[in-house]
Amino acid sequence: MQIATWNVNSLTVRLPQVLDWLQANPVDALGLQELKLTDDKFPLLALQEAGYHAVTHGQKTYNGVAILSRTPARDVVRNIPEHDDAQARIIAATLDTPNGPLRLINGYFVNGQAPGTDKFAYKMRWLEALREWVRKELAANERLVLVGDFNVAPEDRDSFDPVGLRETIHHTTEERQHFRDLLELGMCDAFRLFEQPEKSFSWWDYRMLGFQKNRGLRIDHILVSEALRPSVSACVIDRAPRKNPQPSDHTPVVVTLG
DNA sequence: ATGGTAGCTCTGCTA
């Protein structure tokens, strides 16, 4: 089975590209981020016609997440339980698979703007709450997958300019420690289970020909629990949608289990 | 040293 993540930066604008991509890449589940629309505007019918169920946690203007799946999702959670958050950044659900239930958490992690700002402090609090909740989810669900736009480049090799951007947003010691904390709970970065091309990125700034110059970051991730790790057979970044006219600034990441 | 682009909303914010 295959699970993917894609920050679409407005599902209203990107729906035709999502439908095209799903036709070419009929994954079993897809976590979407930055829908930038409310649930009443979610294109449920078009996605149902494409063969997907959907559970959504939408929001106007900013944020908004959804899980698309071939089979119905159950036990849906929206946002981190007991963590007050005005922003719609998390949706989690259980999928029933031939190998048993699989818990999928899809997140649009806080950007954080710059170290020292209120937004960065919010990012740190949000990551702490996420870590404590993932700890519980992992205790309850040994087959756990955490996908999304983490807004963290975990290592220097995940950035086009690790020296010039040292300790700037996505690159700070604190953000990277939070990423490692998630791994230390018993998750692993599926992408790094395999040999990968150098300068593999999942996001490129729209400005200054970022994609054309491959000035990007790897900030979209798929973490799998120890129980799932032996079944991971591939993990790739699909750069193709970033070449589309009117692309999202992010491109999909796909993991293959089994 | 600053601005560059995109989306949403409507003027500035977020990324």
UniProtKB/TrEMBL annotation:
Q: Which cofactor does it need?
A: Mg(2+); Mn(2+)
Any single GO molecular-function term of the entry would be: double-stranded DNA 3'-5' DNA exonuclease activity
Q: What is its EC number?
A: 3.1.11.2
SUPFAM superfamilies from the xrefs?
Answer: DNase I-like (SSF56219)
Q: Which Pfam families does the entry mention? A: Exo_endo_phos (PF03372)
Keywords (alphabetical) are: Hydrolase, Magnesium, Metal-binding
Superkingdom of the source? Answer: Bacteria
What InterPro entries does the entry give? AP_endonuc_1, AP_endonuclease_F1_CS, Endo/exonu/phosph_ase_sf, Endo/exonuclease/phosphatase, ExoIII-like
Extract the ranges annotated as region (Disordered). Answer: 239-258
Supply the PROSITE patterns for this chain. Answer: AP_NUCLEASE_F1_3 (PS00728), AP_NUCLEASE_F1_4 (PS51435)
Domain Endonuclease/exonuclease/phosphatase span(s) in chain numbering:
4-250
Stated family: Belongs to the DNA repair enzymes AP/ExoA family.
This protein's name:
Exodeoxyribonuclease III
Source organism (scientific name):
Comamonas endophytica
